[in-house]
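Many introductory courses stop at the sequence. We go one step further.
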Amino acid sequence: MKMITEVLIIGGGATGVGIARDLSWRGIPSILIEKGDFASGASGRNHGLLHSGGRYAVTDPGAARECMAENRILRKIAPHCIEETDGLFVSLPEDGFDYRERFLRACDEVGIQTALLSRDETLELEPELDPNLLSAVKVPDGSIDPFVLILENARDAEEHGAKILLHTEMTSLILDGDKIKEVGAKDLGGGEEYTIKASYIVNATGAWANQFLKLAGLQIGMALSKGSMLITNQRLTHHVINRCRPPSDGDIVVPNHTVSILGTTSVRLEEVENFEVTPHEVSLLIQETSKLVPAIQEARLIRAYAGIRPLFQSETKEDDRAISRGFVLIDHGERDGIKNLITITGGKLVTYRLMAEKTSDLLCKKMGMHTPCSTHLKALPKANRPTGLTEKLKQFSFERVETLCDCELTSRKEVEEFLKTDKLKDLQDILHRTRLAKGSCQGGFCVYRLLGVLHDLRRINGNSNEFLKKFLEERWKGIRPILWGPAVKEEELMEGIYKGIFNL
């Protein structure tokens, strides 16, 4: 199939869908292709932090300013994706006060509102913290649901004319002089092949940026930094808890929905594929985060996972934490002579909208247009609809609802509504669009119920056991690094269910 558009966006993370949304509001046609589902890369593998910029105030003030500005915008345009927890930067006895004073000055310089709390005031807010702490600084951090954020951006983009092709991999890139003439792509589900001609190409592939650029004979300076995280089976704190010291391993705890996310590490990788969480990283994260919240030592872990930060570096640095968390926008016409190619990479989840705005501004400039950005003013489609656990509990109280996932209160109705509007290509597509399988049992008791619904609705082609096996293999990757204590018992139960009942 041949397709023609003004802008072709490669990559379905937050930045890619943000660009599609921004262009759609400016009336510029675009097609986005993504080889997996939305948020398959770093956008879906972070600790769900709505940055205030506090983590970078001392070491990376430019990135801190961007985070704080976008923090304020997202609270207005995407309140349904955000929980306003606030954050505490906690000083422990071994940290002293020197860094705290630098931190307070740096936050003031970049416009981050702070409040200094005494030991007793801090423990009154968060009784699970180490009782020997010295003090804490309150900042406007929060938690954010990246999946809802990205899906809402994509839905808004499509409603305003953008076309999105998921599970569609780029297969070729044809150059014609100083421009990319066309891009070849293939639907990984149905096998359909596309030839896409676009006036401009945007490389928004994150950590895969150089894999794309290699097809055009190009390369940029990238550091691939793996960050590993752990999930507990309950919320351990009300606020985001940060260690008030220079950024290091295991210095943050983020409450998100019904769980807490412990993070993170920074490990340099050479390859972007086939990365995993190591036992050393698990031990390190528990050791360090439990200094802030001692209860973590006894907490039950339900999953380990990792994402890759695409860090742009103009010069080689050994320490990934010394590389800016700001983003870079590259016009390959000016840099490399390929006039219709742009790369956007780096940045944070919280700055995705700004990254999309700057990319769209550059595209408009190249097109000779003067249409301003409006995404900082336009709320996402469901922004005024209450969400979260409280709303689900209300729904279950007033309606007779069949539950598929008891941990996250995901109803059959919620799944069926998704299936009416979206084409199912992969079981993970459903899990990304609902909270199903993200709770304590990690899908052990709800995925086979989901398969029953899919059978009832005739939405499975082929052997349903293959769907289950693929899901269990993915689940196992996150459970294997934390397999001790109660997790071993639960995994033996899961093995009994899926071997004994489903004969897997």
